[in-house]
Amino acid sequence: MKSILSSLKNGKVLVSDGAWGTELHSRGLKAGECPELWNITHRADVLSIAKAYVDAGADMILTNSFGASPFKLAYYGLEERTAEINEAAGAISREAAGRDHFVLGSIGPTGVILRMGKVSKEALYEGFAVQAKALEKGGVDALCIETMSAVDEAELAIRAAKETTGCEIICTFTFEKTAKGEYRTMMGLTPTAMVRAVKEAGADIIGTNCGNGIDGMIDVVREIRIADQSTPVLVHANAGKPLFNDGITVFPETPQIMAAKAGELIKAGANIIGGCCGTTPEHIRALAKAVSG
Fold it and tell me: What is the reported pLDDT for 291?
């Protein structure tokens, strides 16, 4: 298992991949289908997405497992296949990455709000543990606990991943700009508070994804760096704020627009940059070119 932390020690900036949902839908995923089941039923399509990002110049790629917690899979009656689906996700991205690129096992939020008391902390921990162990078995190098908004859920996910695997742990939160110009998660957490919480929980790499185009991410990273000057920061920016044209969601930031801002994002303190919603292999190709320059 390779170390992302070691690769970052010499000051190198790494490039991550882009959106998976966007690419799955372009290959025929229908509304209401389980994206993660495609690891079993449409393996070649999932592999083609992973390979496209490697070919575009990404140093690391995620897995198609964002919603593969037993709680999310239960919506499709697939909770008993949690380990199978996650292990397959890890194996697919490992095949595409080879031994020269990193694989990040994607773990997204469960949709469960702990404070409502419908699910225990123990059950949530166990669900994250099952997912993390299966992703590691599939061949991932690190686990990326992403798109978080609630600190209690993120802390459980980090602890489960840390205590049941040997993987490096990344944790990213999604922030929105408020009317006052502040950045907060939907649960009210600030970037500064996020840093403190996830570091104490044991995250090796911190950061932010989704919710913002690259300009907003620059602001968030600057705030993160005020609170922490040394922990590596990963950023997966959307291709701008989504626009709705004739019932179709459009993301306005082109590969060229995002690449033009890469230097400013790195200067703000990002160590790993990639894309989230709306980004494609062409966005990653442009970012990789900008970073190498």
Answer: 96
Model pTM? 0.96
- HEC letters along the chain: CCCHHHHHCCCCCEECCCCCHHHHHHCCCCCCCCHHHHHHHCHHHHHHHHHHHHHCCCCEEECCCCCCCHHHHHHHCCHHHHHHHHHHHHHHHHHHHCCCCEEEEEECCCCCCHHHCCCCHHHHHHHHHHHHHHHHHHCCCEEEEEEECCHHHHHHHHHHHHHHCCCEEEEEECCEECCCCCEECCCCCCHHHHHHHHHHHCCCEEEEECCCCHHHHHHHHHHHHHHCCCCCEEEEECCCCCEEECCEEECCCCHHHHHHCHHHHHHHCCCEEEECCCCCHHHHHHHHHHHHC
Task: Judge whether 162 and 200 are in contact, CB under 8 Å.
Answer: no
Count other Cβ atoms within 10 Å, centred on residue 42: 18
> What pLDDT, in 10s, does the model give residues 212-230?
999 999 999 999 999 999 9
Q: How far apart are CA 2 and CA 182, in angstroms?
A: 37
Token pair 């095949």 is at which residue? Answer: 95
Structural domains of the chain, ranges and CATH numbers in brackets: 4-292 (3.20.20.330)
Evaluate if residue 38 carries a pLDDT over 80: yes
Angle at alpha carbon of residue 103, lines to 101 and 104, rounded to 5°: 140
Alpha-carbon torsion, ordered 26, 74, 211, 258, to 10 deg: -30
Helix orientation angle between 191-201 and 214-227, rounded to the nearest 10 degrees: 60
